[in-house]
């Protein structure tokens, strides 16, 4: 059993409910579950073409989806951060003394073998246990 579990959530993938339930099963009594979404930072000059209100609206919309998806585990805390997905998950886990990461993963394609998926990056570099739930697609 784990006392502090991080559940990184890609809001467009359909595994959030399963990864949260897995985290709940792995969490010790009195433990903590943190549902985390990393809102990808805008790349390059794209930010020059977007109004700050539009960027904030996107962030707020994603936060609302995160809260809704995490509501199936009422004891979970929701956290929204900006950054690069894999790197930010690892930094958050280390900074907050996470002892287990539970995350979903899609079936890897050829591109993932060369570039690496977020789950693959986290598995290779995490300082703690990582449980990966493979999406059936």
TrEMBL record:
Superkingdom of origin: Bacteria
InterPro entries noted in UniProt: Rossmann-like_a/b/a_fold, Universal_stress_UspA, UspA
Pfam families, A to Z: Usp
Domain UspA: 1-132
Protein family: Belongs to the universal stress protein A family.
Protein's UniProt name: Nucleotide-binding universal stress UspA family protein
Source organism of the structure: Sulfitobacter noctilucicola
């Amino acid at each position: 059993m784990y006392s502090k579990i991080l559940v990184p959530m890609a809001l467009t993938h359909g595994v959030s409910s399963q990864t949260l339930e897995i985290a709940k099963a792995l969490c010790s009594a009195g433990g903590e579950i943190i549902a985390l979404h990393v809102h990808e930072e805008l790349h390059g000059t794209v930010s020059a073409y977007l109004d700050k209100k539009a960027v904030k609206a996107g962030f707020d919309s994603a936060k609302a989806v995160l809260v809704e998806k995490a509501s199936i585990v009422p004891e979970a805390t929701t956290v929204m951060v900006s950054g690069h997905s894999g790197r930010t998950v690892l930094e958050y886990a280390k900074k907050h003394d996470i002892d287990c990461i539970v995350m979903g993963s899609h079936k890897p394609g050829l591109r993932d073998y060369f570039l690496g998926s977020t789950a693959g990056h986290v598995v290779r570099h995490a300082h703690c246990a990582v449980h990966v739930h493979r999406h059936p697609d």
